[in-house]
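Aim 2 progress update. The chain analyzed this quarter is reproduced below.
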Amino acid sequence: MDTGGAALPEARARARHLATNSTREMRATAEGAYTLTNLTPGEYELTVDHEGFRKHLATGIVLEIGQVMRQDVSLQVGAVTDSVSVVAEPPLINTDSGAVKGDVITNQQINEIPLDGRDFFDLALMVPGVVPMAQGGQGSGLNVNGARSDSTNYSVDGFNSRSPRGAASQVRPNLGAMQEFKMEVSGFSAENGRMAGGVMNMVIRSGTNQFHGDAFEYVRNSLFDARSFFDQRKLPLRRNQYGTTLHGPIRRDKTFFMFSWEGFREVLGQSTIGNVPTVPQREGDFSQSVVPVTGARLYLKDPLQTGNCNATTAAGCFPGNRIPASRFDPIALRILNYYPLPNRLSSSNNYLTTAKDFDRFDSYMLKLDHRFSGQDTVAYRYQYRVANNTSPFAGSNLGLWPTYINDPRQLMGGDWTHMFSPTLIMEVRGGYNRQATLENEKFRGQDIASQLGLTGTTSDPLLRGFPRITVQDYLPIGAASGQPQHYHVTVLQASNKFTWIVGKHAMKWGWDVERVRFNQPFYDNARGTFAFQRNWTQHSVADFLLGMMQTATRNAQPTRNYLRSFSLGSFFTDDYKVTRSLTLNLGMRYELDLPPVDRYDRASNFDAGLGKIVIAGDRSLPDLPERLARYNLQDRASRTGPCWHATSAARAHWCLPIK
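Predicted structure tokens:
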């Protein structure tokens, strides 16, 4: 508009990205409005000119991820060769988009705020409405506006990174490779669907026309630490986190690259306490023992005697609360050798153990950007992160049955942006993310059950290992019952989006699809669990010495799941500028999230109509639906929010999401 407030149709607005020298321009509409959309986050300069008016040059414009920035321009009468330069000030409030609430964590904050382990996810806790996950929760580690912690969406450069297994982010970009991220907490645009919690949009930095790089190493060492209050000595801690980032041009103004590598090595000493059998108990002498937990006097019952064993009669008791060595079970004696002797003078928690947790990972990231012309640009990014971790107390707090975890993860994606005209733009994306995790216990493949004399356990070489023996009120013996765990989760995804500026309307529409392949055999308790309680003698260690179990369980037929699922989302939005001061943000989204199916038709469900459990592959039931569950084909959600912009910077906001 001119200094009198009149619209200037056909005024040319041109935005230039300073880092890559890419430009975007368009002509103002009859109402004097202009909209430059699909801009890369970063610093820009804006030039506006019109015949008969001085050129307007605004610098210092910093555009953040997902931001809708309003820049009103008033042109002064004069020669077009003259110019008026201004330094743009960041707007205090968003006056053109009334829906999204959240905050952007900038590159400066990411790099300058101290972060334990360089985990930028902690910065999301700075956003109002975001709190740490409640104890015992599952998922991302974040609760957003009261939603469940497994209801947060994660996006890396527009690609979905939420894991179908566990609901956390499938990959975490290297800190040095991050441009910025936005934590949206409510009132999302119709472009975002799927989960009802927050949305974390992460942007990977691109190369620029200048080379930039950095190298770093962060060190933590127990040399600088004090001893923990409960530990007898200072436990080791050696953490080294190092890496490098390099980005710049391959061909100036055309092709750019970014490479980042981050490594992590840690040795962490851990300690825990618990109960182990005492020396007299190992020899069958329970004369000094009491009933665990209650501390009541112990009357050690002989299961082979028929009389009572209590304070009034000892006919059914072991004389003197001592078990003859001839009654000891030979298998129990072999297992007993895995119990260490007490090392603490305490009637409870008489054993303190320490173990080392070895963790390491290497994460590699590459991003390439190329501009073919003013109309076509492409981008490619790939991340590969492989972690090898140790969980020393996974099987037992004795620290003798650790779990070793190999956890490689990948994300790859490419996108193509084509500009048919300054007012019509198309984006196409395709990619995948994948997690292939292997967890194994220390004795995997060894036939420990045969060495101990236990029969009836698995003979599968893949599942052989140390069976689990639990003695009530005492530390267990053996590997974690859920080992081994092998799972592969692959998410294939594609999307297409159009942006069209027509008069007072800035419209977007598009779709996105996902195909999930989730393969995880469940080997839980394949080696067997042998449980000893206080039911036979009134003391669990005595039951154990006699070989008198309470229960013995084993999963004789592991379940092998090959789940497949499909989801589709489509949307339409229109930012309609009713007047110069009033903008309506209108949107509609459709979701189709189909229940998973098993690749080999082995899924089951309870059919209320038939009154029984049915299997998907049951050919005797011809009308049986493949997915064994009803699903909704009418999931639509409207998103509406008006925004009012006045000279006093007043703002009216209303958002009504309906589903």
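The two ends are 40 Å apart (CA to CA). Residues 55 and 83 are 4 Å apart (CA to CA). These observations will guide the mutagenesis experiments scheduled for the next reporting period.
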